[in-house]
Amino acid sequence: MRLRPTTTAMALALITFAMPAWADMEAAKAFLDKEIGDMSTLSRADQEKEMQWFIDAAKPYAGMEIKVVSETLTTHEYESKVLAPAFTAITGIKITHDLIGEGDVVEKLQTQMQTGENIYDAYINDSDLIGTHWRYQQARNLTDWMAGEGKDVTNPGLDLADFIGTKFTTAPDGKLYQLPDQQFANLYWFRYDWFNDEKTKADFKAKYGYDLGVPVNWSAYEDIAEFFTGRDMSYMGGPTSVYGNMDYGKKDPSLGWRYTDAWMSMAGMGDKGEPNGLPVDEWGVRVNEKSQPVGSCVARGGATNDAAAVYAVTKAIDWLQKYTPPEAQGMTFGEAGPVPAQGNIAQQMFWYTAFTADMVKPGPVMNEDGTPKWRMAPSPHGAYWSEGTKIGYQDVGSWTLMKSTPVDRAQAAWLYAQFVTSKTVDLKKSDVGLTFIRQSTIDSQHFTDRAPKLGGLIEFYRSPARTAWSPTGTNIPDYPKLAQLWWQNIGDALSGAKTPQEALDSLCAEQEKVLARLEKSGVQGDIGPKLNEEQDPQYWIDQPGSPVGKLENEKPQGETIAYDELIKSWQK
Q1: Closest of 248, 266, 244, 243 to residue 185, by C-alpha
Q2: What residues contact 396, with CB distance under 8 A and at least 6 apart?
Q3: H or E element: which one contains 376?
Q4: Residue among 453, 241, 239 nearest 367 (CA)
Q5: Residue 341 CB: number of other CB atoms within 10 A?
Q6: Which of 88, 378, 428, 550 could make an S-S bridge to 307, C-beta 3.0–4.6 Å?
Q7: Could you give the CA distance from residue 188 to residue 62 in angstroms, rounded to a whole number?
Q8: What is the maximal distance between C-alpha atoms in the chain?
């Protein structure tokens, strides 16, 4: 994503007041004047107090050169180009904040875990790795760190209770392993203007017998996708032919995230539970009462290849081929995300709010007054879904300190991690990237004022529904090893090389091979995998919960809800 011109200008402006290692409050005041202003939940006096703490705490590390890394998102570009130079000017600690692909971040982290070489002093990596960090014990647990080696460099104003994502970065041992830096959810996206047009509504009801609205189930989503695909929307100033779905299908690591993030659980695969299904999660991996992974295939009590999982992949392929721009089949996550902003997409079931910053720029999906022609809402659920099963994914990019990083370097990096998540800067950072981590920012008057221009984003983050959106949980013992299996096998299904059932049979078998190797190695101790013996799959299907057998009817009656009624229910 391109950085805003104002952000680039700010980065250059900061250089003009960059100061040597003995930098003091003058640099901090220049930063607050030029960049923050009144865009903070703290008063100016409290901003200066927080900056003075950073200046004092950083003195032992002045002159150090620290390297950190994150994926390339608008939020992280702002940190790298604006906040890192500001921190350097204020503290004298020289920060290099690298921006690379998400898959590359995981690869660097994995290499550091395997070799012990200190590649980066801190990582912003997804909380999806919480099960990995907890079991391998190669990441510092921040609970003990803040009470011990990191005590003198832990901001007294950090206010962990203000972070909305710490439950996702806390392991079953009760310890915090990662500090959230940015969060975004996958939600349903649709053209609110088209859905509210009287002619469009009448035509839909005449054909399908029920009202056009936010789809509650996949049946309605499919009907809406069929209805809009090829439809001439020029009577509303739109294109002469539009599409009813947007997705992506390139055989690439991002294809795997599409399914592990929540697509399977939205279909109804996995057990009830919050923040993740137990004992079977949205990857189809079952754990026992000790949180040990015991299987992925149905024959061991897993669900990666059960009927709900097959249904999930089958529907995705069907909709990709019938209702989506043909070029989407060769796109990745990053390439597909901005496409709805081009104005020819009616809806997208699995749209990441990380793209909101791009979606609110002037263009075909924005009104002249700066309000959007689109809205976001909860994604619909599939035929196998039941109340209490996970319904959506929330990405939580989080600061992680590896034990292989020398203590003094980890301490300096920890100061930077707290600076970019501090109350002084969080409101402004959130205004740029729209990836919220603090309740105080979400509740601010600034976002009350900006909410009408963000299509439901603020309403979602203020609603009780938010808690049902969660990252990958602790069932996954080695995220890097298991995640790469998903895109390769799902890719085989999307290309037609295998049927969905064949691809998922292969996937669950390969996952179990990894689990078996971890079990044999004993490297994760008594919280590592301990595979169940294989049984007749029917044995597990007959048990309550996940896995499940095939339904006779996978397309029940379509059901929708009016968007404005949905918002009212959130506000209650």
Answers
A1: 266
A2: 126, 127, 165, 168, 169, 178, 180, 182, 183, 471
A3: strand 375-377
A4: 453
A5: 18
A6: 550
A7: 47
A8: 73
Q: Token match 């832990």: residue?
A: 154
Q: Do 275 and 168 meet the contact criterion of CB atoms below 8 Å apart?
A: yes
Least confident piece of the model among 210-219, 298-307, 326-335: 326-335
CA distance linking residue 256 with residue 264, whole number of Å? 11
* Of 29, 124, 115, the residue nearest 77 (C-alpha): 124
Residue entry with tokens 């169940």: 532
Which residues, in sequence order, are CB contacts of 453 under 8 Å at separation 6+?
A: 360, 370, 371, 372
Kindly tell me if the per-residue pLDDT of 403 is higher than 60: yes
- At residue 17, the 3 state secondary structure works out as coil
Residues 234 and 282 sit within 8 Å (Cβ to Cβ): no
* CA–CA gap between residue 44 and residue 196 (Å, rounded): 44
Tell me how long the chain is.
572
Q: Report the candidate in 256, 248, 258, 208 with the shortest Cα–Cα distance to residue 228.
A: 208
Per-residue pLDDT at 572: 56
Residue ranges of the alpha helices (H) in 42-147?
A: 44-58, 74-78, 84-91, 102-115, 130-136, 142-147
Predicted TM-score (pTM) of the model is 0.89
CA distances from 526 to 25, 130, 166, 520 (A): 50, 17, 25, 12
Name the β-bridge partners of 184: 395
Query: H-helix or E-strand containing 521?
Result: helix 500-521
For residue 64, pLDDT over 50 is answered with: yes
d(CA 482, CA 492) in angstroms, rounded, equals: 16
Is residue 261 within 8 A of residue 473, CB to CB? The reply is no
Provide DSSP, 91-120: HS-EEEEEEE-HHHHHHHHHHHHHH---S-
User: Which residue is associated with the tokens 């830096």?
Assistant: 181
Each residue of 89-130: pLDDT tens digit? Answer: 999 999 999 999 888 999 999 999 999 999 999 999 999 999
What would the DSSP string read from start to end of 153-209? GS-TT--GGGBS-GGGSB-TTS-B--EEEEEEEEEEEE-HHHHT-HHHHHHHHHHHS
What single-letter DSSP state applies at residue 274?
S
Q: Which residue has the tokens 């702002």?
A: 78
Asked if 308 contacts 351 with a C-beta cutoff of 8 angstroms, the reply is: no
Q: State which amino acid sits at residue 191.
A: R
Burial class for 568, CB neighbours closer than 10 Å (0-12, 13-18, 19+): exposed
Strands (E), 217-274: none
- Domains belonging to the chain, first-starting first, are 5-177+394-457 (3.40.190.10), 268-311+475-541 (no CATH)
Compute the distance between CA of residue 334 and CA of residue 395 in angstroms, rounded to an integer: 14
Closest CA to 19 of 98, 92, 126, 70: 92
